[in-house]
Design a protein that fits this description.
- This protein is mainly beta.
- Helices cover 5% and strands 46% of the residues.
- The protein is built from one helix and eleven strands; from the N terminus they run E-E-E-H-E-E-E-E-E-E-E-E.
- Strands 2, 4, 5, 6, 9, 10 and 11 form a seven-stranded mixed β-sheet that branches.
- The longest helix has 6 residues.
- The model has no long low-confidence stretch (mean pLDDT 96).
């Protein structure tokens, strides 16, 4: 089970921290990836965090403003997004898979998404 939260409507330049609540079992055995899908566009990978040693991997275009972390005590993975701009408007999803990959096919289990809207 994966449940995203933390989305909302913000102004350009703001930051958001999205949460992906899951189970201890999921965090122990699966990598968690973050994706987003803007209206009329394909779902794209942002990055992921491995279940081993918290190794992270980011899509090249996402490096710098996106940070993935996790809190095992809370069974939650976070996506910190800084300096938001209108192009970041999208539905944001977390997913669980056996590999810390950046493509949709790397993941078998998906959350329902949380909407982020950036506008002035």
């Amino acid at each position: 089970q994966l449940v995203e939260s933390g989305g909302g409507s913000v102004q350009p330049g703001a930051s958001l921290r999205l949460s992906c609540a899951t189970t201890r079992n999921t965090l122990e055995y699966y990598a968690i990836g973050w994706f987003r899908q803007a209206p009329g566009k394909e779902r794209e990978g942002i990055g992921c965090i491995s279940n081993i040693r918290d190794i992270t991997n980011y899509a090249e275009s996402m490096k710098g403003r996106f940070t993935i972390s996790r809190d095992n005590a809370k069974n939650t993975v976070y996506l910190q997004v800084d300096s938001l701009n209108p192009d970041d408007t999208a539905e944001y999803y977390c997913a669980a898979g056996l590999f810390c990959g950046l493509t949709i096919k790397d993941y078998d289990h998906w959350g329902q998404g949380t909407q982020v809207t950036v506008s002035s």
